[in-house]
Please model this.
Amino acid sequence: MKYQSQKVAYWYFLAAMALFGVQVLGGLLAGWIYVSPNFLAEILPFNIVRMIHTNALIVWLLLGFFGAAYYLVPEESEREIFSVKLAYVQLVILLVGTLGAVGSYLAGIHGGREFLEQPLWVKFGILVAAVIFLVNISLTVLAGKKTAITNILLMGLWLLSLLWIFAFINPDNLSLDKMYWWFVVHLWVEATWELVMAAILGYLMLKLTGVDREVVEKWLYVIVATALFSGILGTGHHFYWIGTPGYWQWIGSIFSTLEVIPFFAMMSFAFIMVWKGRKNHPNKAALLWSLGASTVAFFGAGVWGFLHTLHGVNFYTHGTQITAAHGHLAFYGAYVALNLAMFSYAMPVLRQRAPYNQVLNMTSFWLMTGGMSFMTFVLTFAGTIQTHMQRIVGEYYMVVQDQLGLFYMMRFGAGAAVVLGAILFIYSQIVVRREIVKPGPVAVPGE
Amino acid sequence: MSEILTKSRARNVFYGGSIFFVVVFGVLTAQSHSHITQTATAGMELTDEVRLGKHVWEKNSCINCHSLHGEGAYFAPEVGNVMTRWGVIDDPESAYEILDGWMMSQPSGIEGRRQMPHFELTEEEMRGLAEFLRWADQTDTQNWPPNDAG
Ligand code: HEM
Ligand SMILES: [Fe+2]
Model:
C-alpha cells in the first residue's frame, strides 16, 4: 500500500462481502421456494426474498466499485484521497441506508418498481452518498495525475450517479414508467457500469501483467467507445413490447447485437495483455478472477444476451426463464467476478501480507463459476420448454411451471455450490493467514 | 494501426461519438414519450382510479412475483393481459368482481403449489387495481404477448 488513504477501501470491501453473503443466501432461499413453494410462504413471501436478493446484489457491487475507486485512484493520481473522513461518512450513510432498506422490506414497507424498491429516504441517502463520493474522488483526481483509467472510471461513476435521478421519476403512465425505469437499469449495466468495468480491468491488467500503459489506455478508449456506441441505442431491446413505437424493434435489435463487441473486446484485451506482459505476478488468484470475469461476462452478457435480443426471438422469450438465465450469468461474470478480482488483488495488500490465500480462493472461483454456469444451463433448458409450451402451444403459465420441477431442483443444487464458493471466498479473504499448499520448485523452462 | 489510431484519437472518437449517440437517443426518447401518451396508451383514460391502482400494485410489490408486459419476476403469471385472459377487458364491474374473488381466495394453501400472499385491500383499492390492470391491458404492445396464456 503506497498511500495511507487507500486503507478506506478495506472497509468498503468488507461491507461489500458481508452484503454478498446476504445476497447469495437470499438467492438460495428464493431457489428453495421454487422447489418447495410452501416454505415460509406466510412469513416471508417470495417477493420480499427476491427484493432482498436483488437489492443486496446492486448495493454490494456499488460498494465494491466505490472501494475500488478509493483503492486505485490514489495510485493512479499519485496522491492521497482528498478527504478520508468524507469517504467514511459516505460508507456510513450507505450502510445505514442498506440496513434501513432491509429492515423495512422485512416489515413490508417498500416501493414497487423492480430493483428500485428502496424507501424514498434511502434513495436520497444513496444520492447524498454518491455526491460525496464524486466530490471526494474528483477533487483527488483533479489535483493529481490524470490517466485514461481515472478518466474512464470517473466518467462511468459520474454518469451512473446522474442516471440515479431516474430512480425518483415514476410517471403515473405505466408505459412511461417502464421506459424511464430502463434508463437506470439498462443504461447502468450495459453502458455506464461497463466503463467502470473497463477501467478496473485495465488497472488490474496494468498491475498483474506489467504491460505498457500506453497500450492499455488506447485499448480502454476503444472498448468504452464500442460500449457506449452500442449500449445507448441498445436500450431499444427493452422497448419492443411496453407501449413504445415499433421502430425500436429494428434499432434495438441492431444496436444491442453490437453490444457483444465491447464484451468480446474486454475478453480479448485481458488475454492479450497477459500474453504480452509475461510478468510473473505472485497473485495468481487475482489473475484467474480477472480472466474469468472477462470471459464469463462475454458469455453471460454477450452470448446469452444475444440469444434473446433480436425482436423476432424476444417476442417469444420475453419474460421467461431465458431472461433469468441471462440476468444471472451476465451479472455474475461482468460485475460479481470483476469485483472479486479486485478484492483478491487488493485485500492482501490492504492487510499488508503476501497473497497467502490463493488455493482456497481459486477453489472458490471454480465452485462459483461452475455453479453459475450450471444454473444458467438449467434455467436455459427450463426457459426453452417454457417458451415452447406457453408462448407457442399456449398452455397456461402454472401448468407449464409444474412441468419444470426437475430444472428448479438442479438450479437449487447449483445455487448451493455458489453459496459454498462465496463462503469459501470470504473466508479466504479475511481469515486465512498462510498458504495451505506449498508451491512446487521453480521449473527451468525447457529448451 | 498504431499510427492511425493514437490514444488521443481513440479518446476523441469516444467522446464525440458518445455525445452523438446521447443526442440521437434523447430525440428518440422524446418522440417515444409522445407516442406513448398520444397513441399507445390512449385507448383508455388515465383516471384517478387507475392511478390508485398503480399505487396499490407498487405498494404490494406484485412485480417481484408477477411480470407485467413481460417485465418483473418470473415466479407467477403475466398480468399485462390478465383481463383479456379472464374475458373482462371491457367490463369494469366484472373485472372488479373476478379480481376480488381471486385475491380473497389467496393463499390457496395447496401443498406443493406456489403461494400468493393475502393482501388486505379496501374495496376502493381493489377497484383501482382492476382498473389499472384493464388500463395496462389496453396498451398497444405491438401485439405482445403471442397468445392469451401471457
Ligand atoms: C453485464 C451486462 C448485462 C447485465 C448485467 C444484464 C442483465 C440483465 C437483467 C438482470 C435482465 C432482466 C431485467 C428485468 O428484470 O426485466 C436483462 C434483460 C435483458 N438483457 Fe441483459 N444484461 C447485460 C447485457 C446484455 C447484453 C449485452 C445484451 C444483448 C446482446 C442483453 C440483452 C438482454 C435482453 C434482450 C433482455 C430482455 C429479456 C426479456 O425480454 O425478458 N443484455 N439483462
Ligand atoms: Fe439491456
Remarks:
- DSSP finds five helices and two strands in chain B.
- Chain B touches chain A through 71 residues (CB under 8 Å).
